[in-house]
Amino acid sequence: MPTREIPREEWNAFFETFSKQHEGWLVTVEVLGRDIGAQEEAHELPLVGITADLNGSDADAISIIVGKAAEDHITHTVTGAAHVRLEQAESGADEALQIEGADGATTLLRFRFAMLPELVDGIVAE
């Protein structure tokens, strides 16, 4: 599966487009780190959106928001974000998003199904 690095200067535009394309898609969010192993933060919840707050390399923060109802939303924030990588299937469908923090921990957002957005337009469950 091809992996593409998203340059820091493109993060805001990338996350805005990515969030619009995948809003409501079921995702699992995991944090992988040497000290903590693999920790699941959310399991197959609808993606609400992803935002980047760029304040300088050590203070950059990326927030992933998932959940069904606003009062049930879960927000996972990666502080000191250093790298963003998009994993795609051979078909070009997005499979996962990797966000690496300055501490070396990686947050992995995986889709339940890898599909091209145009194939699911209008059929995302409420």
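(ticket continues) Second input and output from the same batch:
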Amino acid sequence: MRLSELAAGLPDVRLHGDGEVGGLSLDSRTVSPGDLFAALPGRRADGRRYAAEAAARGASAILASPPRPPGWPEDRPWVEADRPRRALAELSRRFFERPDERLLVAGITGTDGKTTTAWLARAALERSGIAAACGGTLGFRFGDETLPSALTTPEAPDLFAMLARAAESGARAAVIEVSSAAVEAERVAGLRFAAALLTNLGRDHLDLHGDAERYAAAKARLFGMLPEPAAALLPADDPSFERFARAAARRRIVTFGTSPSADWRVADHEASPAGARFRLTGPGLDTEVRTSRPAPWDAANLAAAVALAVELGADPSAAVAGAAEADSPPGRWQVIAGGEPFLAVVDYAHTPEALTRALELMRRLVSGSVIVVFGCGGERDRTKRGPMGEAAGRLADRVIVTDDNPRREDPESIAADVLAGIRRARPLRARSVERVADRAEAIARAVELALPGDGLLVAGKGHERYQEIGDERRPFDDRAELRAALAARGVAR
């Protein structure tokens, strides 16, 4: 495709030269001959520094902010952009032939629940006969294929490539997780959304955004991107509702939750270790739902997923059946031992709100003590460490503080922040607090402590199959470690 075709009419973009473009790349190390190299500013490095390397590997053109990147050959085209990230998203959309015009694309944002809601929405759509893709933390799934993704929302070239593959494979809809980081970095700029959904708003990623206000503002910008006929699906029970309703002004607002005013309402929720049942009412629908997933927040996710699927054309009854029968996503309240002699669960809860909800549910489900194993990530939002410690101290009887992706930060410093939060808990329920740095040993210790009737929660990593230590990703899986510890104790699963 000619560069002049790709860039024609883009605002704040000036083209110096022309030529053929065979691909798009953000990483100078992976440039193929004929690629457009996007020299983007990053948190740790500026892509402009790698212009010469990209040229040496055969890049045919470069996208960069002014001035012309040093080391870029004078005889090769330069796409000059005041906002290169936004320009890259628009170029990606055009390069992959506007897949959002061949798919109904819905974006899901929020602090917690994005992955589950996207997973259930896809199941709801598929049950209605609408072939659908979903993308996010667990990768990009369509048909029987899953493409891995290192980011919740991939960089624009990868995102549009995945949407194009889904459309070519016969998908009619795509449900994607949209992180606040992706909005901030303009990865979804130019993407034509048919609908957008907020699961909830809590505390996370303040290391990136600086404060809660900027974090909320980033999420709210997704709703301002919606074309006016599109639907904005919002949680009626969330304190942030009014703010997001204002952000979605002139769009059609659809609500879900437990509020009597919600368009899609969850009521009469009953939970047991085996699952839950509740009543779901919505436009033209009033039904009892039974699922194998006991969490109250999962019922809200299901209501949101059904509402979204219906907005994308699904039959309400079929959508409910599809979402209710779907398995949980990996690492989301994943039961490893089902209650005999104790309940053992792995969950991705890695924010104060999510950990609070998970511990409250565990306390509802078991008659004995609640044991929690968790930690906080290094080089990430420090402000949530204390509140997560407070939640554990208030709601668990035994707490084991361990490592969770310490990266290049001192693990003991991270643990000290968490332990300080535990000491601040009021009331302080935890009668036992231990620091076990090695995560496998911490899980084994929790299994050793568990008695019949207890509940054991391993929180924070969920589906992850690695532990980030320094600059390394070492193989590690909470689920495998918990199974091994249970087997060593002779507990049937």
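Agent notes: DSSP finds 16 helices and 24 strands in the chain. The mean pLDDT is 95. Closing as not reproducible unless the customer responds.
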